[in-house]
Amino acid sequence: MYRYDQYDQAMVDARVEEFRDQARRRLEGKLTEDQFKPLRLMNGLYLQLHAYMLRVAIPYGTLDARQMEMLADIADKYDRGYGHFTTRQNIQYNWIKLEDCADALADLATVEMHAIQTSGNCIRNISSDHFAGAAADEVVDPRPYAELMRQWSSFHPEFTYLPRKFKIAVIASEKDRAAMRLHDIGVRIVKRDGEIGAEFYAGGGMGRTPMIAPLIRDFVPIDQFITYAEACLRVYNRYGRRDNKYKARIKILVHELGAAEYIRQVEEEFAHLLSVGVEPPREELARITEYFAPPAFVDGPKAVDRSDPDFALWVDRNTHRHKHDAYVSAVISLKPAGGIPGDATSEQMRVVARLAREYSFDELRVMHTQNLLLPHVAIRDLPAVWQALDEAGLGSPNMDTIEDIIACPGLDYCSLANARSIPLAQRISERFAETGRTEVVGELKLKISGCINACGHHHAGHIGILGVDKKGKENFQLSLGGSEAEDVSLAKITGPGFDEDGVVAAVEKVTDVYLAQRSDGERFLDTYRRIGMEPFKEALYG
Amino acid sequence: MKILTGNDLRSGAVTWWNGSGWSLFVDDAVDVGEDAEEILAREEAARRVNVPYAIEASIDAAGHVRPAHIKDRVRALGPTVRRDLAVPTAQKTGWDWVI
Ligand code: HEM
Ligand code: SF4
Q1: Which range among A372-386, A517-531, B77-91 shows the weakest confidence by mean pLDDT?
Q2: Is B90 helix (H, G, I), strand (E, B) or coil?
Q3: What domains lie within chain A, and their CATH numbers?
Q4: Taking a contact as any Cβ pair under 8 Å apart, which residues of chain B between 50 and 79 contact chain A?
Q5: pLDDT tens for residues B15-65?
Q6: How far apart are CA A179 and CA A345, in angstroms?
Q7: Which H or E run includes B22?
Q8: What distance in Å separates residue A348's CA from the closest CA in chain B?
Q9: What are the chain B neighbours of A52 within 8 Å (beta carbons)?
Q10: Contact B14 A49 (CB under 8 A)
Q11: Are A461 and A477 in contact (CB under 8 A)?
Q12: Global ipTM
């Protein structure tokens, strides 16, 4: 794992003290809220429905046990004993007090963490494949490249006031487990004729105008990687719209210019930047890469004892193939049936930290599906890991099933929301768990957002649900057919919306249609793509 | 009726104008009639409240102050999915009241 050097640490420490002073001045009345708001947002501190909310960055979702324990301590010391893991691989605390915030940030800094650039119109936390460094199918570990981008984008003076927020994902496999093409920039590290390089996509996003990023370059040599990213950002920074916040994301620029024209401008800027020389020295990438050296895997058994059916189910559902055949990556579900997607108590965080230390080379990941992950677990250790997880309420065998719902905080926490998303997730997961249909239905990605901002990725759900306001009442639009994986697509709305009871029933009806119509081996998404919207519409409204 | 709400500057807690100060309990909220703007400006300047605003509300059959918008009813009680974290008096009001 990457460790801060003296510059990283000095910058983060300085920022904490700067914020401490800003908060003090706000509390003393020397700053108005209008003056203070941009300052606190630069440090990840929002004001939400019930209280201040602090968003802490977890670069590419990787952390170690010590950091997870600190996240637990912060939950206990400054919050209410829990945190919410998000689709951007971050964590949010919902009850931080302004007067405590600098102390919380100082504690975070002791474990090389911060909340910088988790808000505002800057380059946000770089996200990545949660299986990075472990997946059998990756070309290389994408995290050194993500880390290089993190360093480049942290405090980048030119990109501190972009037209709008900017989100980047970096992956390194054909399979896309990071919604890469729904980011402002998506990068896939590839190998061509033995050379490492990067495929770039630009102008994807969700929100009110969802778009899938087009490919803008199929190979950027790795020693020009940052230069090319800089060119992409420069063109956006120059021409992205600042007059209308709803049209300010790069997706609108790429769409309005057309991909070809955007590419032409990027190439022009790229040529210019190559002549200036902005690429970090190669040694820096080499230095970073050393931190991500694979752990010392050892041979061991390659299969588990399947005599306990509950354990066998969990292994089948929640573990993922590893590079080394005596290991797997084990998904820690934060989706107990009827629970709040992505929430973990401080106790659970400590359990997870201990398991990471004992069984996963001190490594953990936050998944964009709002789950946690032990990336490198020896198959021999799986029974012990499963038992500990199960005891802590973290052993639900439901990865990628209809119980593994992504849901944004919605109207229970978020001041922008139109409707509550969490209660829906709770009712649906409970219902499917009760009726035993989760297993029957198999892979089905359901995603819920409480408003059009789409933090819950509803556009990319096999089934998506969007909360809207209908004359002061919560109402829900259903959509079908989205995917954020390598078969990326945007979901289409079925028709008129439903109330809460109605939408729970509608989800069941939609799965009924699927079960009746599926042919062998088809996932929900495959059936939908084959038979189209009509049969579903018929069942819902006919 | 028109009532005032905001967040406490230090803690962020949701508060309601009770005629002389800011209460944690929505039931303490009083009708401010025409005085909203003046109270808001004065109280915010004195930092006794952060980003306050005026909202419509009514008194329900059980005598509780009920904000007109669901968002403010959620604010009054706390997250509906974490009833253990509710504002202390909320239990009396009942969660059905929110929706
Ligand atoms: C609770 C406070 C939150 C606020 C105020 C907030 C605000 C927003 C806004 C305004 C957008 C739309 C941006 C645009 O279209 O230009 C957005 C998008 C998004 N947010 Fe949030 N959000 C919040 C929580 C979250 C959480 C908890 C997550 C992760 C679960 C999240 C992840 C995302 C993602 C993935 C998108 C869509 C991607 C995109 O930017 O196009 N947000 N958010
Ligand atoms: S989608 Fe809307 S309701 Fe949900 S967290 Fe984002 S801004 Fe809030």
Answers
A1: B77-91
A2: helix
A3: 6-109 (3.30.70), 142-290 (3.30.413.10), 309-391 (no CATH), 406-541 (3.30.413.10)
A4: 50-51, 68-71, 74-75, 78-79
A5: 999 999 999 999 999 999 999 999 999 999 999 999 999 999 999 888 889
A6: 27
A7: strand B22-23
A8: 17
A9: 12
A10: yes
A11: no
A12: 0.96
